[in-house]
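Side project, low priority. Logging it here so it doesn't get lost.
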Amino acid sequence: MKPYYESWRISKHNHVSCVDCHYPPSAPQTLLWKKFQAMSQVVKYVTRTYSSKPFAEVDDAACLREGCHSKRLLEGKLTFGKGIKFDHRPHLLEPRRGRQLRCVSCHSQVVVGRHVEVALETCYLCHFKGMSEGRKLDSLGGCLSCHTLPQKEFKIGNITYQHKDFVTEHGIECQSCHLNVIQGDGQALKERCFACHNQPEKLEKYSDIPLIHENHVTEHNIACFHCHSEMTHSMKATQVARPTKLDCSICHIDMHLGPRDIYEGRGGKGIPDMPSPMYLAQVNCVGCHFVEDTEEEFVQKLNGRTFKASDAGCAKCHGEKYAGMVNEWKKELNIALLAIEPRLKEVQNMLSQVSSDAANYTYLKNLYDEARHNYDFVRLLPAVHNIYYSANLLEKVNDNLERFSKESKKILPALAESMFLDGSFCTKLCHAKLAVKLPESVKYKDKDMPHSVHVEMAGPCRNCHQINRHKEIPLKNDLSACGSCHEAGI
């Protein structure tokens, strides 16, 4: 207990006996239990089995007893530290973030050197955890609930400013000028549980957040920083000549989400998710983006480095036959987009002439909106990240336009020839180049079907097959196209 005794001896509570806090005014049976606990500490001391970091619970009743802080809740707002405003009443009588705090939630009794003094780590954790992301800072209560606007003028260069001119008159947010005022994320890592617990049944409750807080904070007065990593709040980082680290996410928000989505095969409308084969094989970005930019070293030091994708990556993994294939995909995708563009514009024009009161207006608008979304999705994103998904999206676009034409009874411009729209890209772009040999016959409904004959007569693979993923080409549910050659029902 020596470190804690020394901490108490130089603290503001050095005139208060230890037992006045550690033996709260309560029922006799509680006091008896406390005495048994104290006796066990004596035994541990004598047998040298004690921990170097003992733990004690101090009840609120000990702090709020007559002669100590019995009037604390009636004092209203007070100021401490460097002009920090605080009110005990809402913090102790009302749940904070849904948790009932105790005196020792903020006044730590175990930090050596600060015996039962305010632990600002708890303040920062409660006010800032999860409240700051990128350029957005929504601290609980806002900055002015704790801070008073400085009254002094300050100078930047030869110009004098007043805080109230910015904050009060112009509504400028504090974080617009004050960088890096919050450091740390305050996460409660499971590894910290092992410092106190080793029972599996208790450790399994790690994810039960309400139970964890009720048990630790409310019932056992555990200080928040025992479980949560530290968060700090200061302007020190903004006062140095050159801040060493700036958060790029303040301005660059949600970067590369589109390329990620198309690689994962999601984000389009009206078709199922279709992850890229390379995504399913867990190929990371560095698999294709491995060519470093050729900027001179001085320019790289100023602007950073970028690793670009190269179709050489295809040959690197799959063989020389794949060289140049990505460029062909890009070329044909552009042809498909150009083929759809005039039809999409015409549908947009048709929709503008339909009254919003028309019975089929909502249906027609949904067709157009879905087509526009999928068209722009492929147009704006690197569609080669997932060629199968992109092909299905373009087919869906054209299908929506055809349905719009049929419903509105108006004719669309003729569709220009495109491998990605007629379904022939599999054979023309890939199979031909790789010399893929198609089977002569396949089984269909327990019958041998001459596959090569159908390839010659039925045309593109997509006329019969739905292109899901590489090598996954089930037959379409609707085989009405067969009726052009076969009798109905065959």
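Brief comment: Confidence is low (pLDDT under 50) at residues 237-241.
Revisit when time allows.
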